[in-house]
Amino acid sequence: YTVKSFNVNSIKVVGSVASAKLSREIRNVKIMGPENVLNKLNSSNLYAEVKLDGLKSGEHTVSARIVCTGADNVWQIGTYTASVTIG
């Protein structure tokens, strides 16, 4: 197993917020997994999953769980936050 860093620039909102966008990319997200799998991944395979229930319009910093669409045997190392604008 090895670790590789990515920048994440897309989000998926969990909850009832109608529209939200990432204010800025999440930099240096560390992903661990088999080296041959990590070498095939790029930033487009990753997104930040955020929960925005109870938040009003405006910019917020929230916890983010990094999800990979390209492989199921990789995971994030560390904790990350996302700056999200709710419109």
Textual characterization of the structure:
With about 90 residues, the protein is mainly β. Helix content is about 5%, strand content about 55%. It is built from one helix and eight strands. A five-stranded mixed sheet has the order 2-5-6-8-3, with no helix packed on it. Strands 1-4-7 form a three-stranded antiparallel sheet. The protein starts with a strand and ends with a strand. The mean pLDDT is about 95.
Low-confidence stretches: none
Rg on CA atoms, Å: 13 Å
Straight-line N-to-C gap: 40 Å
Tell me about the biggest sheet?
5 strands, mixed
State the order of secondary-structure elements, H for helix, E for strand.
EEEEHEEEE
Count of DSSP helices?
A: 1
Shape: elongated
Helix content: under 10%
Quaternary state of the chains: single chain
Write the layout of secondary structure elements.
Blueprint: E1 2-8, E2 11-14, E3 20-22, E4 26-33, H1 35-38, E5 46-51, E6 58-68, E7 75-77, E8 80-86
Parallel strand pairs: 2-5
Antiparallel strand pairs: 1-4, 3-8, 4-7, 5-6, 6-8
Task: List descriptors.
87 residues; mainly beta; 5-stranded mixed beta sheet; 3-stranded antiparallel beta sheet; 1 helix; 56% strand
